[in-house]
Amino acid sequence: MQKNTQESSDHPAQPTKVLFYCLYNPNAGDHHYTMNAAERDYLVKAGWKDEGIGWYSADDTGVPLYRQYNPNAKAGSYNCTTNKAENDYLVPAGWKGEGIGWYGLASI
């Protein structure tokens, strides 16, 4: 996990939150979200457009968001959910479970 301690006019410093990168695939019309800079860099080299930091996620004390990948989809191949039952339904149906992708902020 990478924590952002840098400040800019677009994104004020958020030292207790994890930064999230947004990418766009202009060929498929898909968006992809990751907190992994190496994954971001790999996708950019493969032709994805880096849209910068999209938001800041909670650390591991927040609400878990489960990420699944559908290897059979041509577009819209990722699903993210806070619902563990949804995750547990999709994985045996052919989606590849990637575990907890990130943590969301709890409701205020």
Q: Would you summarize the structure shown here?
A:
By secondary structure, the protein is mostly beta strands.
Envelope shape: flat
Query: Helix proportion of residues, in percent?
Result: 10-25%
By DSSP (H or I, 4+ residues per run), the number of helices equals: 2
Q: C-alpha Rg, in Å?
A: 15 Å
Number of domains: 2
Mean pLDDT across the residues is 81
Beta-strand percentage range? 35-45%
> Strand pairing plus helix content: what structural class?
mainly beta
Low-confidence runs of at least 5 consecutive residues: 1-9, 11-15
The major β-sheet equals: 3 strands, antiparallel
Across the major sheet, the strand order is 2-1-3
* Termini separation: 24 Å
Order of helices and strands: EEHEEEHE
| Oligomerization status of the protein chains | single chain
Total DSSP E strands: 6
Molecular structure report:
The protein is mainly beta and 108 residues long. The chain has 2 domains: 1-57, no CATH class; 60-108, no CATH class. The protein is 15% helix and 39% strand. It contains 2 helices and 6 strands. The protein has helices at residues 37-45, 84-90; strands at residues 18-25, 30-34, 49-57, 63-69, 78-81, 96-104. The longest helix is centred in the middle third of the chain and has 9 residues, at 37-45. The two termini are 24 Å apart. Residues 1-9 and 11-15 have low confidence and may be disordered.
List the helices and strands and how they pair.
Layout (H helix, E strand, L loop, with lengths): L17 E8 L4 E5 L2 H9 L3 E9 L5 E7 L8 E4 L2 H7 L5 E9 L4
Antiparallel strand pairs: 1-2, 1-3, 4-5, 4-6
